[in-house]
Amino acid sequence: MNSPTSKKPLTKTEMTAALAESTGLTKTQIVSLFDELATLIKKELGEEEAGTINISNLLKIKVVRKPATPETQRHQSIHKRGNHLQGQAR
Q1: Cβ distance 41 to 53 under 8 Å?
Q2: How far is Cα 88 from Cα 90, in angstroms, rounded to an integer?
Q3: 52 domain-assigned
């Protein structure tokens, strides 16, 4: 496991091993749990759902759906008058 001075996040393997050790579940069960959690998150954040999922005491994910911004014109350089670039729409 990572030492307190380490700046790197846990890898998937390290996280799986740590959770298996602390919960008494097998690594296969932990991986299965994460797969099902990912499936549930994708479903709940989908177009036809509320766009929010709250996992108690852990995290809350909310989708913000905004309309696309229109294309804009911008100057290439202050010193090159008349040169315009077409900004991409986002």
Answers
A1: yes
A2: 6
A3: yes
* 70-88 residue pLDDT tens: 877 665 555 555 555 555 6
H or E element at residue 59: strand 59-62
Closest CA to 16 of 1, 31, 5, 6: 31
Residue 49 falls within a domain, yes or no? yes
Token pair of 61 as six digits: 């994910």
Position 43 in a domain: yes
The full DSSP string for 18-54 is: HHHHHH---HHHHHHHHHHHHHHHHHHTSTTS-SEEE
- pTM value is 0.62
* 40, 54 Cβ separation under 8 angstroms: no
Report if residue 68 sits inside a domain: no
Q: How many domains, the chain? A: 1
Structure tokens at 47: 């177009």
Assign 62 to helix, strand or coil: strand
